Amino acid sequence: MATPTLKIENLHVEVEGTEIIKDFNLEIKGGEIHAIMGPNGTGKSTLASAIMGHPKYTVTQGKVLLDGENILDMDVDERAKAGLFLGMQYPSEISGVTNSDFLRSAINTKRGEGNEISLMKFIRKMDEKMEQLEMDPSFAQRYLNEGFSGGEKKRNEILQLLMLEPKFAILDEIDSGLDIDALKVVANGVNSMRNPEFGCLIITHYQRLLNYITPDQVHVIMQGRIVKSGGAELAERLENEGYDWIKEELGIENEKVGEQEQEA
User: Which first-to-last residue range defines the signal peptide (predicted)?
Assistant: First the structure.
């Protein structure tokens, strides 16, 4: 089986007429974990939402190729079926739909008609993954994210990741609001997915998550594009020194789009 690839080429994205992402290029292969870091308002969350097809974000140029096929031509559900997963910064609550019903429906939609997962196999797998994430079994029958704390929502996002087994995951600030114990559990869940058939893009403000999930590459995004890349040591330097040294090195002015990005 060929190694899966996710390739972003010359991507430009607008939000309400303001260009946030500008000539963004990145390639991730199966077996790799990449991290994107950068100051507030530089386009990190915009990038994630645009890749998954949020209607607020308008792609004006470029391609996002999953195994050579441009997913920008696909509807949101088709992107998920093709093997993309987005772990959201602010997961939605859905009243009336239990965690287990949501996940079984999502798995069966991905597998296709005639290839649905059996009920017993689904229950065994869900029990196993919930135990791995130290989630109380009662969460299976609770409505999706309803009444969940911030940390519980983030664990639930990783539960969905483990159950759906996508080709590529984009995790948008999955570490925000987590205490150290929850952070370790979430990181262990992501690390358990590492294999040649899975790639991951982690968007984060903080190096602390990368203490537990060692990235193959770290990229710094400013003014909507990658301006610097390196190994895990780059994240450590950013944690210690901030971003001013990169701005000075590249002659970059202070960011002007932070308000639009945060509102997005």
Answer: none
pLDDT tens-place string over residues 155-174: 999 999 999 999 999 999 88
| % helix, strand, coil for the chain, step of 5 | 40, 30, 30
In one-letter notation, the amino acid at residue 206 is: Y
C-alpha triplet 170, 171, 173: angle, nearest 5°: 140
In sequence order, what are the beta bridge partners of 201? 34, 170
Model confidence pTM above 0.70: yes
Nearest CA to 262 out of 19, 8, 46 is that of 46
pLDDT in tens, 218-237: 999 999 999 999 999 999 99
Q: Which of 193, 194, 213 is nearest to 203 (CA)?
A: 213
Domains of the chain: 5-95+167-263 (3.40.50.300)
Q: Which residues pair with 229 in a beta bridge?
A: 219
188: enclosing H helix or E strand? helix 180-191
